[in-house]
From TrEMBL:
CDD domains on file: PLDc_CLS_1, PLDc_ybhO_like_2
Gene that encodes it: clsB
Keywords assigned by UniProt, alphabetized: Cell membrane, Lipid biosynthesis, Lipid metabolism, Membrane, Phospholipid biosynthesis, Phospholipid metabolism, Transferase
Catalytic site positions: 111, 113, 118, 291, 293, 298
Membrane topology per record: Peripheral membrane protein
Compartmental location: Cell membrane
InterPro entries assigned: Cardiolipin_synth_ClsB (IPR030872), PLD-like_dom (IPR025202), PLipase_D/transphosphatidylase (IPR001736)
Family: Belongs to the phospholipase D family. Cardiolipin synthase subfamily. ClsB sub-subfamily.
Protein name: Cardiolipin synthase B
Gene Ontology cellular component terms for the protein in this record: plasma membrane
Provenance organism: Thauera aromatica K172
Recorded catalytic activity of this chain's protein: 2 a 1,2-diacyl-sn-glycero-3-phospho-(1'-sn-glycerol) = a cardiolipin + glycerol
EC number: 2.7.8.-
Length: 384
């Protein structure tokens, strides 16, 4: 992980802040635009961003859109032809997926949410191209974060976007093309923030994001706040948190209370006694779907990105996080998390867990074992 100084990094909370900023950046594009997303839904927001991409292509911008073949199935079936006809270049990452397959290569997904515009600005985070307000859902939006980046950090971000496009283009068409970078990164200083861009892939950076978390937790002296949608940490991660708690670090976990993947939620709850017995505070967010993947350590280290703390993100998917070393940025993120806890979360105590019905606790234990079995079948065992 290489920190670069001189960046401007702006925190964006939920789609309410993210999508207007993204649309505005797309409308500023003049030469080349990369957009990578796990989900690109054919809904109000998806059509709005699709229209902006079509406008960019119409004025001569080379628009390179990449979506995941599983997460963006509805896009492939619906919007993709419309964008391609408008001149948008579209690649689908691993389009074929066998139902219920647990083979390792089938579980390797494009989970990044990354946008680069003209090599001058980028967005990195956890927000998919999908409406925050789900049909039939409550009055509150899906809860998530992204960052807008300018400055020297554009160099590794642009390089990663371009490299993945070339890789998937070759895998899709089986022919090598030059595919030059039309808008090289503008790495001029744009602010005062030190930040690093951290990838997870299946070659050089297989454990980079997990190691970034573990290093920060191991060095923590006062406080750790983690908000994570799908939290199923391996043994090494759990032990590092336990060691931090044992040396007096205050640890707060903000996890899903309203789940869109019930089995994983039950499996996560099987880990609650481990954390509660060590004095780690647990909050479940019930106001809406928690989709965030962020953390703050000791009031100066912070990360925002796409990576959950579970085996699928940490061991299989392509992910991207930004790590920031800045007290003002970390303070803003922590204040936002604390506000979310006050307004939409419920704390779970050890006694609350013990009062859970036996059937519910048994379901958590069964889900935990099934999830571990699935990880083992996919070829990941041992301490993870």
């Amino acid at each position: 992980m290489r920190f670069l100084a001189g960046n401007a990094v702006a925190l964006l909370e939920n789609g309410e802040q993210y999508f207007p900023a993204l649309e505005s950046a797309i409308d500023r594009a003049r030469r080349e635009l990369f957009l990578q997303s796990y989900i690109f839904e054919n809904d109000r927001i998806g059509r709005r961003i699709a229209a902006a991409l079509c406008r960019a292509a119409g004025r001569g911008v080379v628009v390179r859109l990449m979506v995941d073949g599983f997460g963006a199935r509805s896009f492939v079936a619906g919007l993709m032809a419309e964008l391609a006809a408008a001149g948008v270049q579209v690649l689908v990452y691993r389009r074929e997926l066998r139902p219920l397959s647990l083979r390792r290569h089938r579980l390797r997904r494009l989970h990044r949410k990354l946008v680069v515009v003209d090599g001058r600005e980028a967005f990195v985070g956890g927000i998919n191209i999908v409406d925050d307000f789900e049909p039939g859902g409550g009055p509150h939006p899906r809860y998530d974060y992204a960052v807008h980046v300018q400055g020297p950090l554009l160099e590794p971000i642009v390089a990663s976007a371009h490299r993945l496009w070339r890789l998937v283009a070759w895998a899709s068409f089986r022919r090598r093309e030059a595919l030059p970078l039309l808008a090289p990164p503008c790495g001029a200083p744009a602010g005062t923030i030190r930040a690093a861009f951290v990838l997870r892939d299946n070659l050089r950076y297989r454990r980079a994001i997990e190691d970034a978390y573990l290093e920060a937790i191991a060095r923590a002296e006062k406080e750790i706040v983690i908000a994570n949608a799908y939290f199923f940490p391996g043994r090494r991660f759990r032990q590092t948190l336990a060691e931090a708690a044992a040396r007096g670090v205050r640890i707060t976990l903000l996890l899903q209370g309203v789940s869109d993947h019930p089995m994983q939620a039950y499996a996560t709850r099987a880990l609650y006694p481990f954390f509660l017995e060590r004095g780690i505070r647990l909050f479940e967010y019930h106001r809406s779907h928690l989709h965030a993947k962020v953390a703050v350590v000791d009031g100066h280290w912070a990360t925002v990105g796409s990576s959950n703390i579970d085996p699928f993100s940490l061991l299989m998917a392509r992910e991207a996080n930004v790590v920031v070393d800045d007290t003002a940025f970390a303070g803003a993120l922590q204040a936002s998390l604390e506000a979310a806890i006050r307004s939409g979360a419920q704390e779970l105590k050890a006694a609350d867990w013990r009062r859970q019905p036996i059937l519910r606790r048994a379901l958590s234990w069964l889900s935990y074992q099934l999830l571990r079995l699935g990880i083992g079948i996919a070829g990941y065992r041992g301490r993870h």
